[in-house]
Amino acid sequence: MAKLSPDLLEKLSQDLELDLNRNSQYLEEGPKEAGLASIRNILHSKGTAAVIRASASRGKSEIQKYTTGSAYIDFDGVRVNIDEYFISKLNLKLTTLTSKLLQLMLVDATQLLNREAVTEIALRLNLVEVASDLDRNIESKQAKYKFKKEFLNALEVLSRINLRIEEELNGKQITIGKAHLLSSFMPSETEKDTTEVILGLEFLKYLSKGYLKSFDMNILKISDASSHQFHTAYNNYVTMGNNLIATKNQKGPVKGKIFKVTTAITWAASLPTIEDVKNSDRRYTQRIL
Question: Which of 240, 230, 227, 235 is nearest to 266 (CA)?
């Protein structure tokens, strides 16, 4: 592979710095929408991060198959199981919308969850409101039909996900054999284009032990899959308290927003691999940009 010239490396560095400073993937906002108005509290854990990350899984190398036709994806300390994922008649697909719906539900659940006495939580997801949160235009019948199909697929996938977890939360070791994200989902009998969702009790018990952090709702408006994954990870990085703790032998002030380009690449999980680029037009610089 040819080495990049010093001029190109300098340009890449400047482009990355400018992009992070201006958050170019976010849509422009009016004064009423900008700033703290878009910030919500959300509970975060390895399990929730793994499900969001799972939506960027590219294929057989990451999505493994049980003999039953179910799937699993392994992350550090977490196995994301998806019941009957490979059954062809179901035509299930992991998509960015899977992650975004979970993020929306986590924002709502965080407000409703009593962490001292956990009970099931019921949510009402209105198709028009969800589309608005995601900045999806569904005014035409065709656009609405397409979005509803994607929406129901994402809910179906989430309903089939259960987590196996080994994690340390707040100084305590947590081991969970099976925690279903959802207990059920069904159309509302009283509200048009609304789905009633009940979150799984074991999942909520696990979530109640998680870390509270800030979440920028503008992340939901990012359409590009890689950018959505990147900004989700970046949001976690700059809002989690332990990222501001000095590392061993560190001197001087903690600079919690500094990260390596190699780290940024792993955050953008759905970037094409080197093998993908080799098998296409071999434009390595395009992948780096």
Answer: 230
Q: Do residues 161 and 55 touch, judged by C-beta distance below 8 A?
A: no
* Backbone dihedral angles phi then psi of residue 288, each to the nearest 5 degrees: -65, -45
Q: Which long-range contacts (CB under 8 A, 24 or more apart) does 149-154 make?
A: 150/95, 150/97, 151/97, 151/101, 151/127, 151/195, 153/91, 153/92, 153/93, 153/95, 153/97, 154/95, 154/97, 154/98, 154/100, 154/101
Q: How many whole angstroms separate alpha carbon 93 and alpha carbon 47?
A: 19
Q: Which of 104-108, 174-178, 199-203, 241-245 has the lowest mean pLDDT?
A: 241-245
Global confidence as pTM: 0.78
Q: Does residue 233 carry a pLDDT above 80? A: yes
Copy the structure tokens of residue 286: 């395009």
- Name residue 211's beta-bridge partners: 44
H-assigned helices in 160-278: 201-207, 225-239, 261-267, 274-278
Residue indicated by tokens 């589309």: 131
The region of weakest confidence among 95-99, 205-209, 224-228, 250-254 is 250-254
| Tokens, residue 278 | 């080799």
Strands 161-169 and 122-126, sheet pairing: unpaired
User: What is the chain's Cα-based Rg?
Assistant: 20
